[in-house]
Specification:
Structural class: alpha/beta
Number of domains: 2
Radius of gyration: 22 Å
Distance between the termini: 40 Å
Oligomer: single chain
Helix content: 25-40%
Largest sheet: 8 strands, mixed
């Protein structure tokens, strides 16, 4: 990969490659064309709205978790549908949500009963349901845990309180393949399939890693076709990661290198806690271009941030050459769940945002400074 762009940016920064975004979008468009399904961008994963005009040519709209995301989708992808789901809606937000949304998904029949009278004509309503099945290993991300608040369980689903709904929604996956969807859909159908004959759509939620290498698209299409043919419903998918998977980077600079207790440390100007929170929340170890596993290459370092949080450590990596202050490191797959979740803990600045256009030119999209830190306080 050509890394010359790393010399044209100020660190720390996110760099999003439009060509790689478009590569993902072409895959998603292929699924739409094969099955007739609709695909929405889950903005909780990727909200770089400068690319919405590009993405809007391939997908059907956006989905939101709250009013602000719904507004962003409506404003920046105006020709697309606006969908929203929240575990509960605030009374003061709902009229605006109803004004701009094409689909509103409620977490429970009681929420639907409370707000249904304020939904504008033409807006479709649905209920999120819990099919009691998921294969998510990280408890924080498991929406079907025994104590989950997300979605209505089969025993609590009262169709008599849902008059006027047009669809059902389930979301139980996280970075998973179509084999997991197939097994999940079987459980959804077991518990809720009897209602679909009277509805017009079903939403399979997100977590579909459709653009990942090795993903079984044929299986995905079979699952979609099964529902459309058996129940005559429109199928929606709302992945977030798949749109920007492997399409962005975080570029950081080494600030210091030292030895302590027989281990070499490198302090960098990027932070897991501030700039890539999923590294600590999932947790996982992001790939660095040119780096290897600990001790795989000649020089091994534990990479940490310049914050006071002892656990703000990205991971341990090895390199062919010794690291030194001023070296630049390129972390992979940093377009997703990074810009949307970053923060200014410790007064650490937010990374700039760059984009690489389809001609390979690097452009500064947004930079941040002291006022961006101060205004949040």
């Amino acid at each position: 990969m050509d890394l010359s762009f790393t010399n044209k940016v100020k660190t720390p920064c996110y760099v999003v490659d439009e060509g790689l975004i478009e590569k993902n979008m072409r895959i998603l468009r292929g699924v739409r064309e094969r099955t007739g399904c609709k695909i929405l961008l889950a903005q909780k994963a990727f909200s770089m709205y400068a690319l919405y005009p590009l993405m809007g040519g391939y997908i059907d709209g956006t989905t939101a978790s709250g009013l602000y995301e719904a507004r962003l989708g409506a404003e920046e992808m105006p020709d697309g549908e606006v969908h929203i789901y929240s575990p509960a809606y605030r009374d003061c937000d709902f009229d605006e949500i109803a004004r701009i949304s094409d689909h509103i998904v409620f977490n429970s029949p009681s929420q639907y009963e409370r707000f249904r009278g304020r939904v504008r004509r033409g807006t479709q309503c649905g209920i999120r349901v819990n099919p009691l099945y998921s294969e998510v290993d990280t408890p924080m991300y498991d929406p079907c845990s025994p104590s989950s608040r997300l979605g209505t369980r089969p025993e609590d689903f009262d169709i008599s309180k849902c008059e006027g709904i047009s669809g059902l929604h389930f979301h139980t996956m996280c970075e998973q393949g179509s084999d997991v969807l197939e097994r999940t859909a079987e459980q959804f159908e077991k518990h809720f399939g009897r209602y679909l004959g009277d509805l017009s759509w079903v939403n399979f939620g997100g977590g579909h890693h459709i653009t990942r290498k090795g993903y079984d698209i044929d299986r995905l299409c079979r699952v979609i076709d099964h529902f459309t043919q058996k129940y005559d419903v429109k199928v929606y998918l709302e992945p977030g990661e798949a749109h920007a998977l492997n399409a962005g980077f975080l570029v950081a600079e080494v600030l210091d290198v030292f030895e302590s207790a027989g281990r070499y440390h490198a302090i960098i100007d990027a932070s897991a806690a501030c700039h890539m929170p999923d590294v600590l929340e999932m947790p996982y170890r992001p790939n660095i271009i040119g780096a290897g596993e600990p001790d795989e290459k000649r020089f091994t370092y534990t990479l940490g941030a310049a914050t006071c949080l002892a656990g703000d450590v990205i991971g341990t990596y090895s390199f062919d050459e010794p690291l030194k202050a001023g070296d630049r490191l390129v972390f992979c797959d940093m377009a997703i769940y990074s810009m949307c979740k970053n923060n200014t803990f410790n007064g650490i600045g937010l990374p700039s945002i760059y984009r690489i256009d389809r001609d390979g030119e690097v452009h500064l999209h947004k930079s941040f400074g002291y006022e961006d830190f101060k205004c949040r306080l």
